Amino acid sequence: MKPTLRAVAETVGVSRSTVSNAYGRPDQLSAELRQRILDTARQMGYPGPNPTARSLRRGFVGAIGVLFTSRLSYAFTDPFAVQFLTGVAEAAEHHGSSLLLVPLPGDLVGARKAVENAAVDGFCVYCAGDEGEIVDTIRARGLPFVTTSARPGAQDLWVGIDERAAARSAAEHLTGLGHRRVALLSDDVLPDTSPGLVRVSDVADVPHPTTRERLAGFADAFAAVGVTWPELTILAAADNTRAAGAEAVRALAALPEPPTAVLACSDVLALGALDTLRGAGQSSSVTGFDDIAEAASAGLTTVLQPGVDKGRRSAELLFDPPSDTEAHQILLPTTLVVRTSTGPAPRS
Amino acid sequence: MKPTLRAVAETVGVSRSTVSNAYGRPDQLSAELRQRILDTARQMGYPGPNPTARSLRRGFVGAIGVLFTSRLSYAFTDPFAVQFLTGVAEAAEHHGSSLLLVPLPGDLVGARKAVENAAVDGFCVYCAGDEGEIVDTIRARGLPFVTTSARPGAQDLWVGIDERAAARSAAEHLTGLGHRRVALLSDDVLPDTSPGLVRVSDVADVPHPTTRERLAGFADAFAAVGVTWPELTILAAADNTRAAGAEAVRALAALPEPPTAVLACSDVLALGALDTLRGAGQSSSVTGFDDIAEAASAGLTTVLQPGVDKGRRSAELLFDPPSDTEAHQILLPTTLVVRTSTGPAPRS
DNA sequence: CCCCTCTTCTGGATCGATTCAGACTGGATC
DNA sequence: GATCCAGTCTGAATCGATCCAGAAGAGGGG
Questions:
Q1: pTM
Q2: InterPro entries annotated for this entry (chains A, B) (predicted)?
């Protein structure tokens, strides 16, 4: 067993307070005594104050938690999530804090437990599908948190984009090119639907806030040129991966009149769509969302959102809580990046 | 202030033990009482047992730490590191554990402190340049750990590849194609060297173990065809990023006889090298190391190492410590993946 | 009716530190 | 010589739980 601070104190013949001060407040004791304490500590194999005990007493941990809805390991399959994490990591680093990645089990009870058991000083909630429950649990713990998808109450912290307007800009690009028969591609469309073509009677039925807003934004643009919601083809992907995107798009081949364009809710899905469509020799237009690195090399037209910034600023809201008069919510800009994956609709 | 377990106990009129049991050992009390406790707890706004206090008493945390040498945010710039993390995350998820990403400050004192202050049950050390110091600090804390670069003592846990042989395989591919005048590209070649051409009198002088082994492996293959170490051009990159790779390779243009091939110690560096070389219209061969996703689309010839596996198995060694008779060290296979970035050396 | 076992619950010790009010010392000030 | 002060160090309380030995009561078997 490793020796404790108490053991060191006894060996040196001083009080525990003094040993504690030797580590945490060098100005509270003479330099010689401090050195003597540190020396015997090293000699005894004392590894320094136990972080957990210190956290308990001090009342803070020195780590912030990052919450992903889906399986934690999935988080890394989307480069945009990685961008976000990079930003959070930058800020954490800057504040000398660690990052606790908390895997959320699929079931609500487990997820709640995971949030309750995380030893952190606050949370960055990245895209938690069923955010309400999770956020409630965090709030119950009395910890600060920042969300990034659905805009919360005015007193809550939020960093995000205007999802709907951003999606609309991509769709308007396509309507401008003459596309009228299109498919919208996303994961998390409805709970428990099998991948492929899906019927969604109303956008408002989509539970996941980000997905809902983006689909609504797409629909807005098409509504403006007279294409109504039921005329839009909805494609559900099994999850937010390139492979799932590629797979989902296969369903289009079965349609009598395949769409001339696919609007995806993320770049990974869009890239998957391109894999399938280009593989089949089709030149349908495809748009993505996020602007990850691969989007550029693949020539994907997409909506750029500043991922690293999103992460960094989220974490910073946590570290330097805004005063009552300062902004609690940060709206980041998005840009439509037009590349080669989109072109004019074929004359029909 | 949030109520504590004690407050709940007093309100319900039972002992603290009983409230504790209501959460942690439901079989230790009657179902009714438990329900009553849970109900009043909820009503009082008690968020459940404090994770830090629980960890202190129980003696374990439920999180493992992942250590990166370089700045934490850099970790995410290399897709291979992300692969590794994915694997670790999978295993952690599976064991209901969280992942603490610990940013290591550049200075040794700070780094040591970071390791000492991390509340974790064990560490996965990913490529810690000056591993010795870090590992010593972990050992001083008495925590289990797994390393992935330099092979440690036989009793220590390790998951890795035969770096030298793997590098050699890439180099042999090039010698087979007739290349004799080549450049080796890496970051972390020597401490405090400026990027660009570097003179390294002996491979053994390279401090970073992984870099050293890979360079040595490259050299092995060239030695076998009569090209000695001093004849090899060494290129140092500022860090392990695509941009740094691109930049470093620019130095080659100044040489009277530029090399016909560049062997990089990582894919991101290799991709950067390709950016510069192809941009300048040169057809020099380039090899990478890791086989990240972009390598395939860029046609990069590279050495595949199973990144996700590496992470997963590292974490598993931590979670299920091998008995004395079981293997403490796992050697993973590597494969040379030949693509279009390499070709025959031009006749001179 | 007594002994035994089982279930349910309690008290107090404990995990390993930090904190803060105060005690003691020696020297400077008036 | 009394007072004050700065510099050092100590003791006890505290952070918020978990754990373990054991008490109390209920039921069962002989």
A1: 0.93
A2: HTH_LacI, LacI/GalR-like_sensor, Lambda_DNA-bd_dom_sf, Peripla_BP_I
